[in-house]
Amino acid sequence: MNDRFSLVKKLRRLSGILLHPTSLPGRFGIGDLGPEAYRFVDFLQSSGQHLWQTLPLGPAGNYNSPYQCFSSFAGQPLLISPELLIEEGLLTPEDLGNPPEFPEETVDYALVSEYKEPIFHKAYERFKEIPEEDPLKSELALFCKSAHWLDDFAMFMAIKKSKNGSHWLTWEKKYRRPTKSQKAVIARELADEIAFEKFLQWTFFRQWSRLKAYANERDILLIGDIPIFVSDDSADVWAEPKLFQLDSDGFPKVVAGVPPDYFSATGQLWGNPLYDWKYHKKTGYAWWMERFKTQFLLSDIVRIDHFRGLESYWEIPAGSETALNGKWVAGPGEDFFNTLTETFGEEPPIIAEDLGIITDEVRALRDRFELPGMKILQFAFEDEDSSYLPYNQPYNCVCYTGTHDNDTSTGWYEHAPEHIKDKVRRYMNTDGSQISWDFIRTCFGSPARFAIVPVQDLLCQGSDYRMNEPGTVDGNWCYRLKDGLLTNDIATRLYDITKLYGR
Question: What are the two backbone dihedrals, phi and then psi, of residue 365, each rounded to the nearest 5 degrees?
Fold first, then answer.
């Protein structure tokens, strides 16, 4: 691991694409880790890219947000490729039946789950018939032994499914707060269901590790994402309540969010439970270190979402209707990152998401550990001498045209006031007719060490194709690429820009 960290630190001026795997095309209503994912890696290679950034890879919960997952450690089973299961003999082509007519450009998560879950059960039943001496059986056993989080997560999901997906705080006490002996009873009652959940996780990690190896062999690094907070409806909160500020019944006392910012006049009320940082410090941040250990198995570089929350975070009383009635509370700060450095032997490759209200203290923490921050070009043109303008960007940062929380560059430009459009056109020396590519050229030509563009900008797609609109709950996280859009012409054009700017 340390060798890879050293390699990442030495790399200079790389570029890549932001695309969550759920957004890939494919036959089954959602992107997955099968053939289309490998084709996307091939596209990255042919277009001269060396970075593939994803969103969190966990099992999405509320409103299908990858930032509100049922676990901080587990993978998203819906990303499992049925086609790869056929190659391994755990499914047959006939097992896939006739897939529904899924929408081409969006993910219908409910329809996908309804289709995929029975298929995965077929694969699991076939797996159970494999002889015990088969290497696959020992591989699964080793995975179950090494994944410290797996027993709790599998039990949590088995109970949740038996309760029709209801929030764990609504379960009967023996399920909501099981004693050790009650867990033993549950383990017997739901033995097959728990084993199925473990099978799914093993399959996800197996398929992902092979895809990652394929990318790494082609000099493509994967950038993962750690949400700083976890969902209240998660195995993390259910299994380890001491990690969080909860009342005796398991309800949060205070919740996470941010005050008014670029995205919302009333702030953002995320609702995640907040950590008991005193307890984490006593344990040497053991849970967090395990979290990073798992993430570094999945990724070469990790982006910490809402990095500023590790310096200080916005604490909102539980039950508040907006984020306005909150206060700043000190986070673990340097002590956390000193522990992280000691655990991994050197400063690991981390990107600090330092957007929003950033103070001198947050900047000092970021710079103390030489973490690259983020510069968003869409934010660069409102202030006279914005720090987001390329000529103000330092080398040690990541320049983005926009992120998953922004409008697409085309959509942003279309909705911008005329005086902003005028500044953009003059700065980029363009008539604005292909503004997405102007943004890409400006991003790649910046001083930033890394340059990342969302895939929508390669395709000049408008606002209807954005991934997420902060402050809203419906219609997000559903974006998908139509098959065939990433053409050889686009790869060649991107390759030429990449080489022109030395990336």
Answer: -65, -45
Distance in angstroms (rounded) separating the CA atoms of residues 365 and 495: 36
pLDDT digits (tens, 9 = 90+) for 194-219: 999 999 999 999 999 999 999 999 99
Question: CB-based burial of residue 482 (10 Å sphere; 0-12 exposed, 13-18 middle, 19+ buried)?
Answer: exposed
Asked whether 489 and 458 are in contact (CB, 8 A), the reply is no
Rounded alpha-carbon distances, angstroms, from residue 60 to 22, 165, 387: 11, 12, 34
User: Rounded to 5, what percent of the chain is helix, strand, coil?
Assistant: 45, 15, 40
Whether 305 is a known active-site residue: answer yes
227 half-sphere exposure, CB direction, 13 A CA radius: 24
405 catalytic per annotation: yes
Q: Terminus-to-terminus CA distance in the chain, angstroms?
A: 25
Q: What is the pLDDT of residue 4?
A: 58
The pLDDT confidence band at residue 66, using thresholds 50, 70 and 90, is very high
Strand order in the sheet with 450-454: 350-352, 301-305, 221-227, 51-53, 14-18, 450-454, 397-400, 373-376
Among residues 225, 232, 353, 438, the one annotated as catalytic is: 353
Rg (C-alpha) for the chain, rounded Å, is 23
Q: Which long-range contacts (CB under 8 A, 24 or more apart) does 421-427 make?
A: 423/381, 424/381, 427/381, 427/389
From 36, 197, 225, 305, active-site residue:
305
Answer whether residue 111 shows pLDDT above 90: yes
Confidence grade of residue 483 (pLDDT, cut at 50, 70, 90): very high
The yes-or-no verdict on residue 263 having pLDDT over 80 is: no
pTM for this model (two decimals)? 0.96
Q: Which two tokens stand for residue 67?
A: 């930032």
Give the phi and the psi of residue 192 in degrees, each rounded to 5.
-70, -40
Q: Does residue 8 carry a pLDDT above 70?
A: no
Residue 2 has pLDDT above 70, yes or no: no
Catalytic residue among 225, 233, 354, 405: 405
Neighbours of 318 (CB within 10 A): 16
